[in-house]
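Hi R.,

Here's the chain you asked about this morning:
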Amino acid sequence: MARVAEKLYLGGESRGLLSYVWAGVLGWVLHVLMDTPLYADIKPFYPLVVNPLYTYPGVRAVMAVYDTVLVCGFVTYLLHFYKFTRGEGALGLMRLGSLAILSGIVVGLHAFSFELDVRNE
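And here is the predicted structure, written out as tokens:
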């Protein structure tokens, strides 16, 4: 695990297992809460059989927020990556460029997929 974190420049101080467990639980909760306005069949308050947070007419607005968060996350990671690869010269810039291209492809495919979903409805 430490070698993967080093390759992605996410290392630094050593983190214990508990921090990874908390990150996983937080990610799970946020994922469910972010999907709640998009899908009627998600029941975040389980004994209730309805989803009070479901906003079908507002799907475009919710997706715009998600897309903004996605792009901000990629930009933040690219800046973090650049900060740690500055001293590596051309190799660091090539790695950063490859990561930027990959991020652009992911964002582009995500936007293309969203447009197809909207048109099909």
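One quick note: Residues 2 and 13 are 11 Å apart (CA to CA).

Cheers,
M.
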